[in-house]
Amino acid sequence: MTDVVIRALDSSDADLFDTLPDPLGAREGHRLTRHRPDWKRVALRDGKVVARGAWWGGPDDTEPLSLNWFDVAEGEEEAGAALLRSAPWQVELELNLPSGWRDAPALRTAAETRFTAARKAGYDLLVERFLYRWTPGHGLPERPGRLVFRAEPDDAVFFDALRRIHSVTLDAHALKAIEEGGLDRAAQEELDFFHWCPSPREWWQLAHSPQGDPVGIHIPAHNPSGPCIGFIGVLPDERGHGYAYDLLAECTHFLVEQGAEFVAAATDQGNFSMAANFAKAGFPVVKERLNFHPVR
């Protein structure tokens, strides 16, 4: 077997990326994603593409934020690992898979080939997530009317709320941030993401009870691919009343009122209560995502 050649692509040879089969339907899943040609890399054996990766970031980012398209031909796990190890960016790897992929042998084999390559390259699984996409055909979720929503211009108020929300959390990314830098880091990472989104700062909202007690926050947002539920969080002292559904319903209505024709969202699969709220609000699972992070 000949050695693998790793190549970065540019606008002149970006079509080479498309020569590998796409059993997991990544191309359709990235229909609204803009990948830069120079952030694409391929592994070739005998001139044939056997692994590929497309790194992704916002239009103003100077470096990728994640690797969200990674494919490996069956039996070419070492080539896939070499592609990851040789990349100049060691960022989180997102693998988006069809819902129910474990029950389809061909899909499971294709997915596990990518998992093996990632692990050989020094990536560990962080979390499995559900990806949702609401469309008008599912109907707008009913607003319970129990909370009062208002904008708040002071980032410090949201920072404090995020610290409190993440003091008791199931979110894997927040837990990782807390382990690495404490609650301040977890809260700041969320704020940085909200500011990174190209949606107006004025959209961020606090939720209060009719008596004026703070209950939580919701962040209607647009990422570069379109409208999304940026964040839903209930303060620890207010949990147990189902308020996460109220926040989700309000966030969905808000985005539709701004002209959204669909709303994307995601939650960790282990967050059973939030997954139940998405189901109640009419958000179907359209894909599953596995997040791997580089550890060496």
Topology:
Elements: E1 5-8, H1 26-29, E2 40-45, E3 48-56, E4 66-72, H2 77-86, E5 92-98, H3 105-120, E6 123-134, E7 148-151, H4 155-166, H5 172-196, E8 205-208, E9 214-223, E10 226-234, H6 243-257, E11 263-268, H7 272-280, E12 285-294
Parallel strand pairs: 4-5
Antiparallel strand pairs: 1-2, 2-3, 3-4, 5-12, 6-11, 6-12, 7-8, 8-9, 9-10
Helix pairs in contact: 2-3, 4-5
Structure, described:
Pfam families: Acetyltransf_1. Residues 163-296 form the N-acetyltransferase domain. It comes from Streptomyces violaceus (Streptomyces venezuelae). The protein is of the alpha+beta class and 296 residues long. Helix content is 31%, strand content 30%. It contains seven helices and twelve strands. The longest helix is centred in the middle third of the chain and has 25 residues, at 172-196. It is elongated.
Name the features.
alpha+beta; Acyl_CoA_acyltransferase; GNAT family N-acetyltransferase; GNAT_dom; 296 residues; 8-stranded mixed β-sheet; 4-stranded antiparallel β-sheet
Could you write a compact summary of the structure shown?
The chain is α+β, with helices and mostly antiparallel strands. The chain is built from 7 helices and 12 strands.
> What ranges have pLDDT less than 50 throughout 5 or more consecutive residues?
none
Number of strands: 12
Between the first and last Cα atoms, what is the distance in angstroms? 28 Å
Percent range for β-strand residues: 25-35%
Number of H/I helices? 7
Averaged pLDDT, please? 96
What class would the helix/strand composition place it in?
A: alpha+beta
Q: How are the strands of the largest sheet arranged?
A: 1-2-3-4-5-12-6-11
Helix content: 25-40%
**Based on CA inertia axes, which overall geometry fits?**
elongated
Radius of gyration: 20 Å
* Major sheet description: 8 strands, mixed
- Give me the strand/helix succession: EHEEEHEHEEHHEEEHEHE
InterPro entries: Acyl_CoA_acyltransferase, GNAT_dom
Protein name: GNAT family N-acetyltransferase
Organism: Streptomyces violaceus
Domain N-acetyltransferase: 163-296
